[in-house]
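#lab-general

N.A. 3:47 PM
ok so I finally got the sequence cleaned up, no stray characters, all 479 residues accounted for. can someone with queue access submit it? mine expired

B.Y. 3:52 PM
send it over

N.A. 3:53 PM
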Amino acid sequence: MSLLHHNVQREAFAVASRFRDDFYACLRARRDELFELADALLCADGPVTTPVDLTLLAEHRRGHGALYSALNHGRIDVARLRRTLAALPQPKAADDRLVLAVDVSNWLRPDAPTSAERLFCHTYGRGRDQHLMIPGWPYSFVAALETGRTSWCQLLDAVRLGPEDDVAVVTARQVRRVEDLVVGGQWKEGDADILVVFDAGYDAPRMAHLLDGLPVEVLGRLRSDRVMRKPVPTPWISPPQGGRPPKHGKEFRFAKPETWGEPDADTAQVTDRYGTAEAMAWDRIHPRLTTRSAWIGHDGVLPVIEGTLIRLQVDHLPGGGDPLPVWLWSSQTGMSAASVDLRWQSFLRRFDLEHTFRMAKQTLGWTRPQIRTPESADRWTWLIITAHTQLRLTRPLAEDLRRPWERPAKPGRLTPARVRRGFRNLRAHLPCPARAPKPNRPGPGRPLGSKNRRPTTRYDVGKTARRPASVIERDRLRP
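B.Y. 4:20 PM
back already:
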C-alpha cells in the first residue's frame, strides 16, 4: 500500500467517524434506536424487504417494538442534518464546479387510504405507452453530482411535496439552501457559479427568476414544442409611425427550423455512447411571459428572463432507440463553444441520480415499509439518506467483496452495492455512540378478543390548493 493511499484511507476514516458522531447529535428522540436502524440498513445481507427483518441483525440490539416506536415518535433535527451534509467534502465536476441535480422520486401508496397528504404521482414504464397517476408521496431531492460515468452522488436534501405546495416554490426553497454550502466552505467568492440541473418537469426560466441573487446557474431541459423569443435587434430602428421599442424579438419555434436563424455557437464532439454529438446554441433567448398559470400571482411588470438555448443532437442511443433532439436552456448568457459543451455534458450527468433512486428503492428498501403517517415516512427517508452518505464516505475503505460471476472493479470504482457488502467489517472500527439497550418487557397490548372502536380516518388524494384562473379572480381572492 502506497503512502498516498494510506493517507486517503486515514482521511476517509476520520470524515466517516466525524459524520457518525454528528448524525447521532442530530437525533433528538429515540436516538439510539434510529442510529442502530441506520447501521442495520447498511449491514443487512441483500436487499431490505421489510424494516422488521432488520431487528434480527446483530447490529440491531433492540426489539421490533422499538423500531416502530422510533419511526412513529422519533425526532430528527433536519435543519442540523442538512448543514452536516453540506459541510462534508462534496464531489465536483471536471472544471472544479459544484453541480447540483434536482429531481422528484415517488413513494407510491395506492392502497393506503388512511395515509394523509397523498398526491397523484405520475408514473411511466408500467406498460406499452402507458402513463398512470398513482397515489403516493412525491419527494423532491437535491444531490451533488460527480464527474464522469458513475453511480455515486451526494444526497443533500429531501422534501415531501404536500397537497398545498407549489413544486417550483418548494424546489427554489431547497436550492436556496446552497447558503449552507457557502457556510461550509464549499463555495467561495470568485468561484464559478453553482450549476443546478433540472429535467423537463421544471420551468427553467421561472426557476432562474426564483433563484435570482444566489451564486447559481440554472440549466434545464425544455419541451420540444416550446415557442420562445429572440432578443430585440440592436440598434433598434423605429418605424415611420413611431412607438417605443418592443420587449421581445421574433419567435423561435423549436419545431420550425426556419425560425432559428444562425446559431451563436456550434460544436461537435465524438462520444463513446452516443456517436457524434452536435450542439447549437443561441444567445439571449427568453420566453414571453403572461399573467396566468404560474405567473398569476406576480405583481408589476413581467420580467424578461434571458438565457442561452442549446440544441443537442446525437447519432444513436445506447439502447438503440430513435435519438430525438434535446433542448436545454441555461440562465447564463454569452457562452463560448467550450462552455456549451460543458453544459450538455453536465446535463447528461443528471441521470446518475436515477442510479441513486434505484439503489435507495431496490437495495436499501426506501419504499418498502407500509408506513401510515407522512411524518414517519420523512424519518425513514432521512435514515436512507444518512445510510447512503455513509456508503459514499467509506468508499475508499471498502474492499471488493465480489461474487464469483462478477468482474473485478478498479480501485475507487466500487458501486454502492459492493461497498455495502463490506460495511459490516468497517463498522467494527467506526465509532458507535448508541447506548446499550435497557432490559424491558413488552406491553400488554390490546386485550384478547377486543375490537377496535376508533376507526382510522380516511383521507382524499390530490391537491387542495388551486391557482386563480384569471387576474380578476386573483384580485377578488386577495384580502
